[in-house]
Amino acid sequence: MKRKADFIEERVGDSFYLYPAGENVDGRIFSMNDTCKFVWDLLETDRSESEVIAAVAAHYGIECIIAADDIREVLSQMSCAGIIDQ
Predict the structure, then answer these.
(1) Model confidence, pTM
(2) Tally of structural domains, the chain
(3) What are the per-10-residue average pLDDT scores of the chain (86 residues)?
(4) What residues are paired with 32 via a beta bridge?
């Protein structure tokens, strides 16, 4: 999976937001916390779900089994929002 191009990333305070470039945003804003932003950055290059889970687990110093459900949920939300290709 890989993130789609043509999204503008903006930081406001402690939050990050993505919105489509060159289009009417019309409610298509995706907000991200630090973990979601880390995943978004990982997906600049094509990665499998297991690679993303392993990278997040290593980054936060936790076991993959602990990170897996939360990261799958983040990836599902990203997919539903149309900001990544699976």
Answers:
(1) 0.89
(2) 1
(3) 91 90 72 94 97 98 96 94 88
(4) 16
